[in-house]
């Protein structure tokens, strides 16, 4: 799926209203008149996402003088000040059929980038409590309950200040892009990088896996698996890096190896159950590959952690069935997240815990630091 971000035009109005109504209840949704006014007053901060030519989402907001959005801002778009200090977000909408595909992240990142380029001091928005962790991944900080009563809902003020960021963040001149839509990788990367974008790379992972396995010589299977995750990580990073040559792009991929077989993401619930059943009473390896591309520089490596599961029993069977039914295993290599219910089945770990989660962040931090230090030398 090819996703493009562009500025809005007045002719987009009817499609925008359809998406708005699909995302918010009537009391919170912007009216047609309000959307029309915004399109005319601040088209430069009214961005649209298109997937294969179809409008699938948008983000918009006025530029205001303070880091807090007041209800008056929602109701009177004329309060937009082109010379204001803070870019606000009035709405971040994605059509229901296109959610959980990284589109909202692309829209928000594009607006943050535009605000920085325009010399704003920061970006501000209001969100409901359950959305706070999502926006924190983009560097916004929860400033507490908002005074807004928009739509008779409870809101929280979220603010991203461009000034006064950590010195380390200032020293990082390149834009940093994580080539993964995994919320777990974003959360881990935020431990060392406070400001980064997220873009999803579209590659044929199955074809790459088949090629690597077919070309494997008489070597240890774990070495072949390490080559696989390194190649997948590099390919993901390369796709994004080709369009962002000045950026530092981080690609990553994770697989589970059990009995010299690769366990990727399950294809269905039966597959997820079978994977977890097969791992009971055994030790498997989790390998995460990382590839960092910056200009002509590249750092690529794989990290391995061994995980042992308890023997299978009736209780574990019930827990696995409930876990599979929840749907949570379906986007994870080996059909489990160790930070979830699967933690109850782990009898031992040998290696880096975060490699299992999806990103060996300590090794990533050292690699980034090394690249920056070499560049400054």
Automatic annotation (TrEMBL):
Pfam families: Acetyltransf_1, Maf. It is an enzyme of class 3 (hydrolase). Keywords: Cytoplasm, Hydrolase, Nucleotide metabolism. One of its GO terms (biological process) is nucleotide metabolic process. Its EC number is 3.6.1.9. The keyword Cytoplasm applies. The keyword DNA repair does not apply. Residues 3-161 form the N-acetyltransferase domain. It catalyses: UTP + H2O = UMP + diphosphate + H(+); dTTP + H2O = dTMP + diphosphate + H(+). Belongs to the Maf family. YhdE subfamily. This is dTTP/UTP pyrophosphatase.
């Amino acid at each position: 799926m090819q996703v493009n971000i562009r500025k809005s035009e007045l002719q987009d109005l009817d499609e925008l209203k359809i998406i708005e109504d699909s995302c918010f209840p009537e009391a919170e949704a912007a009216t047609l008149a309000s959307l029309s006014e915004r399109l005319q007053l601040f088209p430069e901060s009214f961005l649209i996402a298109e997937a294969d030519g179809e409008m699938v989402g948008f983000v918009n907001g006025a530029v205001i003088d303070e880091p807090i959005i007041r209800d008056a801002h929602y109701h009177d778009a004329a309060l937009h000040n082109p010379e204001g200090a803070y870019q606000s977000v009035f709405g971040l909408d994605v059509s229901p059929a296109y959610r959980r595909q990284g589109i909202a992240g692309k829209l928000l990142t594009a607006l943050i980038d535009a605000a920085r380029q325009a010399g704003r001091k920061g970006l501000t928005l209001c969100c409901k409590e359950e959305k706070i962790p999502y926006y924190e991944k983009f560097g916004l900080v929860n400033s507490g309950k908002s005074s807004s009563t928009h739509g008779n809902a409870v809101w929280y003020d979220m603010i991203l200040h461009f000034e006064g960021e950590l010195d380390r963040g200032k020293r990082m001149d390149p834009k940093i892009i994580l080539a993964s839509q995994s919320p777990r990788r974003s959360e881990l990367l935020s431990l060392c990088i406070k400001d980064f974008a997220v873009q999803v790379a579209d590659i044929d992972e199955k074809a790459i896996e088949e090629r690597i396995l077919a070309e494997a010589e008489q070597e240890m299977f774990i070495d072949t698996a390490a080559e696989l995750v390194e190649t997948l990580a590099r390919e993901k990073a390369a796709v994004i890096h080709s369009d962002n040559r000045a950026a530092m792009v981080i690609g990553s991929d994770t697989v589970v190896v059990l009995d010299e077989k690769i366990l990727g993401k399950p294809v269905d619930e039966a597959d997820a159950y079978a994977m977890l059943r097969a791992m009971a009473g055994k030790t498997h390896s989790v390998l995460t590959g990382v590839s960092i591309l910056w200009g002509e520089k590249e750092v690529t490596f794989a990290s391995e952690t061994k995980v042992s599961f308890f023997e299978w029993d009736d209780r574990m069977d019930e827990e696995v069935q409930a876990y599979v039914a929840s749907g949570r295993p379906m986007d994870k290599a080996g059909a489990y997240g160790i930070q979830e219910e699967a933690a109850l089945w782990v009898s031992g770990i040998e290696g880096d815990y975060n490699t299992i989660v999806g990103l060996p962040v300590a090794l990533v931090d050292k690699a980034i630091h090394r690249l920056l230090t070499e560049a400054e030398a």
